[in-house]
Amino acid sequence: MATERLAIIASKGTLDWAYPPLILGSTAASLGIETAIFFTFYGLNIIHKEKMKQLKVAPVGNPGMPMAFPPSVKKTPVAGQLAGLMEAIFPGPPQLMGVIPGMTDFMTAMMKKTMKDHGVATVEELLELCKDADVKLIPCQMTMELFGYKYEDLIDGLEPPGGAATFINYVLEADKPMIIFV
Amino acid sequence: MASVTADKTLDTSGLNCPLPVLKTKKALEELQPGQVLEVISTDPGSKADIPAFCQRTGHELLETVEEGGKYIYYIKKKG
């Protein structure tokens, strides 16, 4: 049978951008496609033991962000009414609010709660599902050195660090190769 | 009510994309070829995703039932 391979490049280190590579990777593997995710630049934070717990979603520079109060907050009596009022006035957090200290942490907490309320898996869960499904998780050697990350700083179960040639070769060995850049 | 009887049931109620598909894949691994898995989901996205999963993997989607906000799939493991 012709081999099909999906190679995903994860280059972003925010909470929201951690999701697409992990969701696509775990799902492709469960559809029987050989899958690898290459973590480069800030994407390395997704597989960094400490930094993966601190992934954030930034209101600054993100005008598409909705005013996201979790459903569980909207159902509580006073806080819910306040949240409803906020949402009626502002469709999203005004960009200026991003400079308020703690705003990024607040929006991150709201996003995490909203995801939990909606039954969306956590980043940790998705990484475990990727490993279960035999997705190859490859850290980028060059950016590890650039950022001063050691292999031991990263989560267990990863492939050895690789470079561009490793990645390209992995892709082109397949009869039907696919690449997604995130 | 479905006309098929299932050998095993997987309830993914409350879970969202991609968890219903991933859990379906795992549950099917525990069945024998020809056995039927019943998957219960509340994720509207599963209406497109479960058939796509079956088409891709070769398992047969025997029947889909939609009742009371739940989507129930009967999947026969490929032989």
Overview of the molecule:
The complex is a heterodimer of chains A (182) and B (79). Chain A has 182 residues and is of the alpha/beta class. Chain A is built from 7 helices and 4 strands. Chain A is 41% helix and 13% strand. Chain A starts with a strand and ends with a strand. With 79 residues, chain B is of the alpha+beta class. Chain B has a 4-stranded mixed β-sheet, covered by helices on one side. The N and C termini of chain B lie far apart (26 Å). Chains A and B meet through helix 1 of A and helix 1 and helix 2 of B.
Low-confidence stretches of chain B: none
Helical content band of chain A = 40-55%
Task: Classify the oligomer.
Answer: heterodimer
SS-based structural class of chain A?
Answer: alpha/beta
Distance between the termini of chain A: 29 Å
The CATH level-2 architecture of the largest domain in chain A is identified as 3-Layer(aba) Sandwich
The radius of gyration of chain A is 19 Å
Global outline of chain A: elongated
Shape of chain B: globular
Q: Percent helix among the residues of chain B? A: 25-40%
Order of helices and strands of chain B: EHEHEE
The average pLDDT value of chain B, as a whole number, equals: 94
Q: In total, how many domains does the architecture of chain A comprise?
A: 2
- Uncertain runs of chain A: none
CATH hierarchy, class of the largest domain in chain A: Alpha Beta
Lateral arrangement of strands in the main beta sheet of chain A: 3-2-1-4
Indicate how many domains the architecture of chain B comprises. Answer: 1
Structure summary, number of beta strands of chain A? 4
C-alpha termini separation of chain B = 26 Å
Indicate the radius of gyration of chain B in whole angstroms. Answer: 11 Å
Structural class of chain B: alpha+beta
